[in-house]
Amino acid sequence: METRELRYFVAVAEELHFGRAAQRLGIAQPPLSRTISQLERRLGAVLLERTSRTVSLTEAGAVLLREARAALDAVEAAERRTRRAALAASGRAGAVLASKAGASSELLAKLLDSYAAEPDAVTIEVLLCGIGEQERLLRDGRADVALLHLPFDATAGLDTEELCTERQVAILPAGHPLTGRPHVHMAEVTGLPDLPMPRWPGRDGKYPDGPGPQARDHAQLLQLIALGRACWIAPESCRAQLRDDLVAVPVLDAPTVTTVIAWPPHSRSRAVAGLVRTATRL
Amino acid sequence: METRELRYFVAVAEELHFGRAAQRLGIAQPPLSRTISQLERRLGAVLLERTSRTVSLTEAGAVLLREARAALDAVEAAERRTRRAALAASGRAGAVLASKAGASSELLAKLLDSYAAEPDAVTIEVLLCGIGEQERLLRDGRADVALLHLPFDATAGLDTEELCTERQVAILPAGHPLTGRPHVHMAEVTGLPDLPMPRWPGRDGKYPDGPGPQARDHAQLLQLIALGRACWIAPESCRAQLRDDLVAVPVLDAPTVTTVIAWPPHSRSRAVAGLVRTATRL
DNA sequence: GCCCAGCGATACCGCAGGGGTATCGATCCC
DNA sequence: GGGATCGATACCCCTGCGGTATCGCTGGGC
């Protein structure tokens, strides 16, 4: 199977429409139809059920969609990592570290400082990204290593080392009645009708249903809390970055957050190994 | 990048010889040279250092070799799993489970029995394989799920669930002085000059250096022990399969062995999910 | 020191196959 | 029933992959 065939199939499987898929791929519809038929013949499996009005995935097609995405990610990763290795050899950027924007910035700063002091340190490019994006970045080679936060991020298929564990705090607008308390419980925070939890967009860019306001990033989130429209629960290390108009109160029964450093299991380059070693020594 | 290019590159990178690589690929040498040059030009990276006598990998080439193998495994897995899904849909085999030959056969039997009793059970094909082979089988799609034994097998890049933990026993020939003891310590077993540990072939098929006799599989191993030429340390569940001329003695300070069920993280099919669920309930 | 063997690169050719246009056949909607 | 929509088919062109012949370089043998 060639990656071209996989790319074509993924396009059709996602669009469920040969015409649109062909447009997306920048080719005409007939060669696309032909390629898919060839793929089906070679695999000995019907991948798509076509009536002349609708296209739908068969069981085997669903499997191939899942597997093809993974395989294409791996191919893309190979390409990106090779390019990066060539740059590294010629003295340019060494590795890319992905971290959630706004999270654990002090840990990140300490890590980068300590690593830079290592004798064989290379340049580390930092890629700040959205929630849950790190796994994809690692899989398709845009990043070599990432900081994840359990239990929020999935670590399936990644190698990890634990770095630190911390409790969580509730972020509330200054002046809210609860801010006078030395600590609170989950139920007291999640049950506030006037301060619901904001909703985050999922991977598809859509917001889940619910009562809370919509927030796209950290700045919006903090703004919403300051405006008295929402509250939030976050690792206590975020206290260092809090604005004056926000107050953090420890939540006694919130799950603790563990920050881990993660990398794709088979690709432990010198730069990644050095970063991991430095991180575990912090 | 097309898989054809990756296959070609891997062949050259492994042979470090264009002629032999071309032969292995079943093509002539010139198109191979051309394809590699094109690949290098497109990546903007020198992958191979050629003098007219020798070929060697550059840094970037080593990275691509590693990544290309992973990517090709993923593509192969996509192909195999799709074929299998098509067969499953037409009522044939449902999933392939890999397990070390001769290991934890009672657990395996219980698992297969319990799973078969599930309402939505499909046919499970069992693939008995050699030491350390399971990871590769899972990665390239020849197997969907495997039984692994920690700390011997690597679980990097796999999702796992623990099934059971057991102590280890020393396997000795009947009549050996230590067989009268209720238990022994590691040092007493590993230090026996007359009963060294057998050597196993690695992934490359070669035997490591050392004093012990060479063994290729379980039967040979047991035969060697019965002959008084070797001893072995194994999980205690293997007692059930022991021949009369062998004796198992608990080893107090041997590391415990944990059997886990493992599967590739992104591909949790219905059959795999069912097997895992059944296994954790045992 | 010269020549030959071995190896990768280059030049050139033929054709399989990937991509394009035109069109057909089927289905849904008004 | 006619038009619109969509995937499949027929046919053509040309890219690009693979083949053969050959070159250029290098190391080793005499």
From TrEMBL, chains A, B:
InterPro entries: LysR_HTH_N, LysR_subst-bd, WH-like_DNA-bd_sf, WH_DNA-bd_sf
Domain HTH lysR-type: 1-58
Statement: the UniProt record of this protein carries the keyword DNA-binding: yes
The organism's place on the tree of life at top rank: Bacteria
Keywords carried by this UniProt record: DNA-binding, Transcription, Transcription regulation
Name of one Pfam family that matches: LysR_substrate
GO molecular function terms listed in the Swiss-Prot or TrEMBL record: DNA binding; DNA-binding transcription factor activity
Any single GO CC term annotated in Swiss-Prot or TrEMBL for this entry: protein-DNA complex
UniProt family annotation: Belongs to the LysR transcriptional regulatory family.
Annotated PANTHER family: HCA OPERON TRANSCRIPTIONAL ACTIVATOR HCAR (PTHR30346:SF0), TRANSCRIPTIONAL DUAL REGULATOR HCAR-RELATED (PTHR30346)
Stated name of the protein: LysR family transcriptional regulator
Species per Swiss-Prot/TrEMBL record: Streptomyces guryensis
